[in-house]
Amino acid sequence: MRKKRGAGPSIPADFIRLYHEFNEGEISMNKFLKFARSGSIYGFFAISCLFTAFLSTCNPFICTQSAYANESSDEIFSAGQRGFELEEVLPHNELLFTQGLSYFEGRLFESSGLYGLSCLSSRILYSTRPVQSISLDPDVFAEGCTVLGDKLYLLTWKKHELQIRDRESLRLLETRRYAGAGWGLTTDGRSFWQSNGSDSLFQRDIENFRIKKRLRVTDGGKPVRLLNELEWAEGVILANVWRSDRIAGIDPESGRVLFWLNIGDFVREESARGGGVANGIAWNEKDGIVYVTGKRWKNVYAIKMDDE
Ligand SMILES: [Ca+2]
Prior knowledge:
With 308 residues, the chain is of the alpha+beta class. It has helices at residues 13-23, 29-38, 41-55, 60-68, 264-272, and strands at residues 84-91, 98-104, 107-112, 119-124, 132-135, 142-148, 151-156, 161-166, 172-177, 185-187, 191-195, 200-205, 211-216, 218-219, 222-223, 227-233, 236-241, 246-250, 257-262, 278-284, 289-294, 299-305.
């Protein structure tokens, strides 16, 4: 039986920070375990996390580093920058390892990753206290999520499982299988769009989640790799590029990057506080607002894109 959470995860912030740094390859396993052992019950918890990770189809710690070892974001941009205005700075739960963000009628829906710590929550814009929150099974590493109608759709990283949940209760209704890794997920209302860390996006059928089209994303003719969290807005697909301070605005027909949003100021501000990479985009169509956040960020930045 899954444990429902009240005001968010109860694991200490230091533990989350070190688990994140270990996952990102920034500290060694020995250092992580040394800290965990010093925290008594968290030592058992840490070992459980590692054991679960090794039992999964691919060890996330090894896979995360090796998969990206030969890939880095190309810092040469062809498409121009699109300006924006910062409308508001909203609070964000700094413990969340944000993997997906979606907006629906005044609420943000957010998926948070890591084995043993993954959770889903919904909340109103001006509070970090969840309206609804649920912990996921320890073998689930939550990835992108999106709201469509009365359901919430959640990708899993290596489990090849799309979870379809009730939007209000977040209760699991059914699942769909898919091949490969799951990273970002969004919807245009007629199809889903999914990323897997490569330079391709996959348009998928609403009902059966089968691939309808593969879209290769390019900027100036060069592939844009490491596409991560996604959001459909104004007829284009906004995409975080992993470990980058840019959001790509992608033409869903050609795959061409039409513009870049430079969110470097937000990334630097959050990084100075110990936050991780940018990895959350949500679109409020009614007010024309894009919400931007990241892993363990303190804030959600509400921006309004300039007219093109
Ligand atoms: Ca999103």
